[in-house]
Amino acid sequence: MNAMTDMNAPALHIEGLKKSFGKAEIIRGIDLSIGKAERHAIIGPNGAGKSTLFNLITARFAPTSGKVSLHGQNLAGLAPYQINRLGLSRSFQITNIFPKMSVFENVRCALLWSQGYKYSFWNLVGRSRDLTEGAEAILEEINLTARRDLPAGVLSYAEQRALEIGITIAGGADVIMLDEPTAGMSNTETDYITDLIMRVTEGKTLIMVEHDMGVVFGLADQISVLVYGEIIATGKPEEVRGNAKVQEAYLGAALEEEH
Amino acid sequence: MTDMANNPTKPAVASPSVMLTFGPWIVSAVLLLILPLVFQQNSAITIMNQMWITVIFALAYNMLLGQGGMLSFGHAVYMGVGGFACMHIMNWDIFGSIPLPILPIFGGLFGMGLAMIVGAFSTRKAGTVFAMISLGVGELIAACSVIIVAFFGGEEGISGDRTYGLPFFGVEFLKQIEVYYLISLWLLISAGLMFLYSRTPIGRMANAVRDNPERAEFLGYSARWVRYYSFVASGFFCGIAGALFAINYEIVTEENLNTASSGVILLVTFLGGVGFFFGPIIGAIAFTLLQTVLSLQTELWAIYAGVLFVATVMYFPGGLAGVLMMHVPILRLGNGKMLIMPYIKALIPAAIGILGVCCLIEMTFHIRHSSTGDHEMTLFWTTFDSHSLIPWFVVIAVTTAAFTVMRRNLPELVATWHDANDAKGA
Questions:
Q1: Is A80's Cβ below 8 Å from some Cβ in B?
Q2: Tally of CB atoms within 10 A around B38
């Protein structure tokens, strides 16, 4: 772990975060603290700014104002790869893998930096037992061992999502952010992915955007409800479920839909 | 395959993989050794020298295009500058104490040095931005060649004499064949190193950045630095190719680094296939043959090379290597034999038809460009009068017939192709 990080600080701390695109203010001041080893779901209606919030945390976008810190370290001005090296890894709403490379190669590439290979041109990846075994263990975990040598682009949608989760966790980051991991999946696939997320994030901090309330209530220790760029409630699942404001804004409708 | 799987002893399992790893390299080394014994004419050795230099250059170019997803329109400058640098070394007094075989290292370092400078700003972005910067830098350095005469020698370039170098175990490189083996040695070294590079962490990440730079960034790698290292490594091997060019021809001119040369290497690499490591090798061999052998036969060789390139881009984006590799699954299924007859039935008429079209082009060219009164031309060992109607009639008839037969037989080839891919063993 980096020397500048503080062991007692929350895993992720967000303060007064704002983001405008032109005149439209998408994120309108967010304060949020996510503790270590917490599974935190961010829910909210479409267009609430959930993905934008993710992109702000991981430096895909620069915030208009406000501060994000990881283990007490301010992330301002850092590039995505620097944030990743500090121990934060994410997946994307739209599947984001290396389509032309084999499934195994996808996972192996995700292991390279954390295993200390950096930009080296004096090591052969095929020679490293750690890399091969590490990648195989992850393939086993995400149930894709049988697909090992196929180009990732030909996998089914659910398999690609599983692969993306595999890539996201491979580097051993202790803060994992998943953006709608079960979007567009059938019920069986959703159960499979939920179970997978449960297993691979054991002992890690998970931050997740999700629409499927079954998944959210099944996985999350804490839930934040984001509506029009603001967090209107944060708390344990049962507290959020009982919150009148939340029910009015969002959850009631979504829960009704589900039943 | 099944025999190996059934055999539980360790050596039998290990040997196929060792053969797969080293087999192609050993075969290549043996080929490089014996080729000059098969083709002994001086002209053949000249062609092979040219070919191997182009192979190194094309492989280096493909480190960018195929492995790293960077399309460069000005890559000849790194080869050219390596060549010029070596030419200057050859003209210095120090050269007497440098053995010629290590000269390419200096060429490589100069190519790499230039790549380090240019790459510092050109690799920030891939795609169009990178392509445009490479084009601009290529033009800039090509323009410098007539301005900075001290380094580039103006229009006549720089020439030197390789034999002034320190004799290397008594070899002074007076003979073409000695240069051949020097180039071959460097070809093996460079190709081997470039292949190994593609298997290192940085080489693997070059593929990842090519496929999806954003994802690579979220895995801890800066896409920009990954591109930069590939660019610098490519510059090194381009410089080696340039040095070998300087050694082989003993002259380097502006032509070696202008945009036309950069265009040629793009064409060569794409023709061979960017998707496979060995693609550029095939491309370089095919193109050098076109350029040397075909150019002796016809002034129009560049048209044919151009048409071949366009056809490759349109119908076989994987290049010649891609076409070859399409057959691997079929051969694995043991269905290779199914294709032989349909291939003969479709490809022989196609070849005749294409040659017919070439005849028509040559005859038109002859009528337009031969000196007045010279009506006699020779094509395929047949001498005839290009202004009479009979040869035209014959060629058009043969071409039409050939294409008709090809069209009729093509569906069978397509159908067999699908069967061969599906069926589990005929």
A1: yes
A2: 8
